[in-house]
Design a protein that fits this description.
It is a single chain. By secondary structure, the chain is of the alpha+beta class. It is 51% helix and 19% strand. The chain is built from 13 helices and 12 strands. It has helices spanning 3-18, 23-30, 41-60, 66-80, 104-110, 112-117, 161-201, 204-220, 222-239, 249-267, 292-303, 336-343, 353-366, and strands at residues 84-88, 93-98, 121-124, 136-144, 147-156, 246-248, 271-277, 285-287, 310-319, 322-329, 373-376, 382-389. Helix 3 (41-60) runs antiparallel to helix 4, helix 8 (204-220) packs antiparallel against helix 9 (222-239) and helix 9 (222-239) packs across helix 10 (249-267). It is elongated. It starts with a helix and ends in a 9-residue tail after the last strand.
């Protein structure tokens, strides 16, 4: 085998590994490989392909929109080495990149069958302009979960089996990015649903009792009533905010302090709270509404059956690369087996939703090693420990 033949064989193998047979060959027929000071021409082509693909991926992770298509189209056309490329949704051309913009008005007519059946197609452009280089096109559906979202259409001066194969591989790669975008959206919707569940857990009785406690101070201690009303307003504003998946430990603890101020206004000397916080852990980010349900749980179980006084201890301490948060009460506690059922989601529609929700969200964000650690027994109170990494990619307080 000659040196050129061996090089072509290596290119085919690399193309299969990267984006399927024909992807690198498609680029090579459209643009000669440039010499590189480092590595062989094949290695240089591989690097360029990976680099171009990496630049096209982030926009597509936002889904198939006009903006994401516009930002990705030039990179995708570079991957294919074709004269023109367009991306469409089911109704219109989202972006046209390259020569022959006048073909844009006819594209959707050629895609009717593709959008209905999900099968790729190739067609003559039928252009009457003798100077136009675009004479042939291949169209590939963009699908997510068997739904056709749109199409990728590549144009060339002549029919090309290599381009058809490469367009199919690039379209499949685009579909993977769109599927990841769908997963991101699903994850966001799931988190929003979980937060809504936590908000629903903020008992109407707590709101009613808080307002009643505030009202009781209006005549006897107007200044106290004013302070409590401000605490109530800030607490509800934070709990029902609509932006940000994450918050900081400082903001979460501040909201908890407001919550406890309202509880103490009602129960007075029956509830004693000890708070110990290391200043260096205050900027640590964590999932929004992660601690408040645990403190509410401690208040509920701490005051149940308490004849005289209940004590709750909350600590947030520095533990090297992590922050360690402990919430402990001396209340009724519960049977360990009942707790295990709750954390398995078997506690019923309204039982332990806060514990289960927080445990699941911590594991989703940080991994299974970061779930809740709970120590309890009947009549022995409850101690909940959670660890928060001081830094985790993608976790930023807002």
């Amino acid at each position: 085998m000659t040196g050129a033949g061996a090089g072509a064989a290596v290119l085919v193998v690399l193309a299969v590994l990267l984006f399927g047979t024909g992807l690198l060959l498609g680029r090579r027929t459209a643009r000669p490989l440039r010499p590189s000071d480092v590595g062989t021409p094949v290695e240089h082509a591989t690097f360029e392909t990976l680099h171009t693909a990496s630049l096209a991926a982030p926009p597509l992770r936002a889904g198939l929109t006009e903006e994401s298509a516009r930002r990705a189209a030039r990179r995708l056309r570079s991957l294919l080495g074709t004269d023109a490329l367009c991306l469409t949704d089911r109704d219109r051309v989202l972006v046209w990149d390259g020569a022959g913009h006048h073909h844009g008005k006819d594209v959707m007519e050629h895609l009717k069958v593709l959008l209905d059946t999900g099968r790729g197609t190739a067609f003559d452009s039928g252009c009457a302009d003798l100077d136009c280089p675009l004479r042939w096109a291949v169209a590939v559906p963009l699908t997510v979960e068997n739904r056709v979202l749109g199409a990728l259409v590549a144009y060339a001066p002549r029919e090309s089996a290599v381009l058809a194969r490469a367009a199919g591989e690039v379209a499949r790669w685009v579909c993977v990015q769109l599927e990841l975008a769908e997963l991101d959206r699903s994850r966001t919707q799931l988190i929003e649903a979980e937060i809504k569940a936590l908000r629903a857990q903020i008992s109407p009785h707590f709101i009613f009792n808080s307002l009643a406690a505030i009202a009781s101070f209006v005549r006897t201690d107007p200044e106290q009533a004013r302070e409590l009303l401000l605490e109530f307003a800030d607490f509800t504003r934070y709990s029902f905010r609509r932006h940000g998946e994450f918050t900081t430990l400082a903001d979460e603890l501040h909201s908890i302090d407001q919550y406890l101020a309202l509880v103490r206004a009602r129960f007075g000397e029956r509830l004693a709270v000890t708070l110990q916080v290391a200043p260096e852990v205050l900027p640590v980010a964590l999932p929004f509404l992660c601690l408040q349900p645990l403190v509410e749980n401690a208040v509920k179980h701490g005051l149940e059956g308490a004849v005289t006084r209940s004590r709750i201890t909350i600590s947030a301490l520095d533990a090297g690369s992590e922050a360690e948060v402990v919430i402990e009460d001396d209340g009724t506690g519960m049977e360990p087996e009942r707790l295990r059922r709750i954390l398995r989601g078997e506690g019923g529609a309204s039982t332990g939703i806060g514990l289960l929700n927080v445990d699941e969200r911590l594991r989703q964000v940080y991994g299974d090693d970061y779930g809740l650690v709970i120590e309890t027994g009947v009549g022995a109170g409850m101690k909940i420990t959670l660890r928060l990494p001081k830094y985790r990619a993608g976790v930023h307080g807002s």
